[in-house]
């Protein structure tokens, strides 16, 4: 009987320490899981923001040859001037204009105007269009 109580006396602290260690392991695993989930959520949110415009929508945007109105403006993607006769696209919401190739490249990665950040994803929603901003304010 004495031996048994001595054994219990030795084993109990070990059992206690083990229980604490197990609880600690659980906490660590929980923290790692939560951090992973948060990281994933953040990555998803970032991916959402940096989603380009679908190609089918890109092709619906009006493309024109630069005329008198676009001439002399700067394409804010390549920072070069838009010259008469060059293929350009004018964004339907904010009326900012760019070289067609420059804008298409940009919109494939980012569905927002490079100048004023007006999201083109709103075009995909069946909502009335907001009033256009005066395109003469195009400043890079
Ligand atoms: Zn350009
Ligand atoms: Zn714009």
From TrEMBL:
Residues 75-117 form the RING-type domain. Keywords: Membrane, Metal-binding, Transmembrane, Transmembrane helix, Zinc, Zinc-finger. One of its GO terms (molecular function) is zinc ion binding. The chain crosses the membrane at residues 6-32. GO terms for cellular component: membrane. It is found in: Membrane. It comes from the Eukaryota. PROSITE patterns: ZF_RING_2. PANTHER family: (WILD MALAYSIAN BANANA) HYPOTHETICAL PROTEIN (PTHR46539:SF33), E3 UBIQUITIN-PROTEIN LIGASE ATL42 (PTHR46539). This is RING-type domain-containing protein. It comes from Aristolochia fimbriata (White veined hardy Dutchman's pipe vine).
């Amino acid at each position: 009987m004495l031996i048994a109580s001595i054994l219990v006396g030795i084993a109990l602290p070990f059992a206690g320490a083990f229980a604490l260690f197990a609880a600690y392991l659980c906490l660590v695993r929980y923290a790692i899981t939560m951090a992973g989930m948060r990281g994933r959520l953040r990555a998803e949110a970032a991916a959402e923001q940096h989603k380009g415009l679908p190609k089918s929508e890109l092709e619906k945007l009006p493309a024109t040859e630069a005329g008198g109105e676009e001439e002399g403006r700067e394409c804010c993607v390549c920072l070069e001037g838009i010259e008469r006769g060059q293929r350009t696209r004018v964004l339907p919401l904010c009326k900012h204009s760019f070289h067609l190739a420059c804008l298409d490249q940009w919109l494939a990665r980012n569905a927002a105007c490079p100048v004023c950040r007006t999201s083109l994803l709103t075009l995909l929603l069946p909502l009335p269009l907001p009033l256009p901003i005066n395109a003469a304010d195009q400043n890079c």
